Amino acid sequence: MKYSLTNLLYLIILLSGLPFLSHSQSVIQGKINREAGSSFTVYLSNLEDFKYSSMAFDSCSIHPDGNFKCNIAMDKDTFRIIRFRVSSSGPNSSNQDGFHDNTILLPIQRNSTLSLIADADSLFYSVSFPNNTDIDSLFSNLRAIKKDMKVWSRSALEALKKTKENKKASLINNFSDTVKIFSNNHKADYARLIDEESNMYNIVYGLQEYFIATGNSYQDVFLKKTMEKLDSHLPVIENCKKKNTRNTYINTHINNIMDSAVFSPLGSQKNWKKSLKNKDAVIIFWASWCGPCREAIRSKIKDSYPPARKKNIEFISISVDQDSWKAKAAYKSDMVKWPQFLDANGVFNRLELHFIPHYLAFSHKNKTFTIFRDFTEAYNSLDVYHQ
Fold first, then answer.
1. Average per-residue pLDDT in the chain?
2. pTM confidence score
């Protein structure tokens, strides 16, 4: 049989296209209830990091009747966990009231269909899965853990709206303390949920919530130990393991620099390392012009100093101001009593911390410095050994 050139070309194209004709697809579909006339879109992104959302890889429209259908290519993966976000103002926005309950994690199996029903303005707290009792049960457990904080959060937001501007900072500090109490309680609940699970999706979702409750700390002991046990090619697990390795490198880098660091005295204490003798310490990097630094120093750091001294924990402030007189004026105005120094030799830049405030927790026992973005985390990492 003879083939014309046209027939041969057609046959080659057809054969070369066969792999592409066998796309594996999965479907997320359902109904999103919202106010009449409002417009929402579903955004899909890969779960690659607990802390940061990756770029949306796809989106699908929600029809006027609330129905939607998203097709997801699954050529390489048999299983994925994706972020499913419903928004009226772009893929990275939270809900209007500021609560991030318009995003959930969903498990996607190859060649499967997942159906859900939810409210656009409260996705996490309203979502149900008519054909999947396992996922429904997981969300019920997660909502039960977070229910008390949700109720308090709504009332706190209303109180903040009614508060005068000059009193909002103080109220927010009080809120922060309450949130930490909730978070510590929730950590224990999430840890129990994770320990009782064998389903990878449920474990990862539990870890996501646990991570948030830690204040976004990849150095949390339970998180690190759980990650080490998980044998998975899911990007989020691989990336978390890499971050823990990178954190080890960062802390080694910081210890090497701090071992030889020299800071100029701003007060009566002349040698900053003498303040570390036989003590644990929190090192506070700040500046006179840094509003969040000053607010933290005047409130929670100053309030924590008396009990810290009783536990043999010292605080040491290192100003990154260019002019020493500005730093002196600021710390005297704030009436702080712990040792004060100036970074006149560019130590902060060599540490590559980039932002202030930053905190280092010094362990006298281990002779090591550990980096933190939050003062309470840094302090609690030391306080746990003094309880």
1. 81
2. 0.58
